[in-house]
Amino acid sequence: MNLSDVAAVGEVKRGEGQSDRRDNELKICGGATELLYNDPCRRFVNGLTIERRRMRLWRFERTHVCVSKEFSFHRTPRSFLRFLLYLLFSSPRDLGFDPNVRRYFERVPEETDPSSGASSDRYQIAYRYQVGNRYFLTQGPPISDQAAYWVVSQATRVWRVREMHFPDPSNEHEYTLGEPMALKDAYLLEDAVLDSGIKEQIMASLRDAGADDKDAARYFMEYEIDEVALLPNEKETGLEDDLTSDMETNRPASYTPKVETPDIEAWIICVEQGGYIVTLAAGTVSGILQVGKANLRT
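Structure for Fungal-type protein kinase domain-containing protein, as requested:
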């Protein structure tokens, strides 16, 4: 089975002892971690654990992990059935897949066999990031993805990418690739300062100190795109609706009111020059969506 097609994770035990419960918890957390780490297309992962007749529902997101109170799915099967219907009939987006990131099969041309004339082209897995009306295709493995291993994190990934250009917009398999760039995929808080804003603050401080900000600008990126990446047709609140949100089993056992800080997904992109990826930043970077070029001193 291809893990990219897995809709949810689960663990089942015939016993209901503390050791069974603990083993289920460790395994479902490990399974969700593997899915979120290995698949950039996922925003969250749903799951379930069963110890004999006792069941709990899980949700793993980049901001938190939540679990329902346990219930008997023999005595109260309605919640279990609603969860199964949610998995069976929900859209990929409602199951946690990011519509802005697609798993792509990139064709890698190989030499043609001169005797038979047959082509030996091969295909490798890549990821296509959509930024507004622009598309970027990853090239090879990520430059850095250690932070994405932790479930509750900014899940930062940095890729080598090229922009995709489609001669025929209706045919997504025929395209040309632009210049090499670097793309940073990360999650951030709603009030995070974008990198271009941090750069402007640094330049303003240099001007106030009487320094030459134009000379210093060569060490920073020139941003073409600098914005947060929202889901298509997302509500103004940024909250997601799904069939589990109003379930009795999904309500927390206790709740401490606090200021809500919903997470937003974003990316950063810079240009590769001379075989090197140039990413220069200063200050507190919380995650952004940016495309830019860097000037290097030779």
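Residues 3-89 form one domain.
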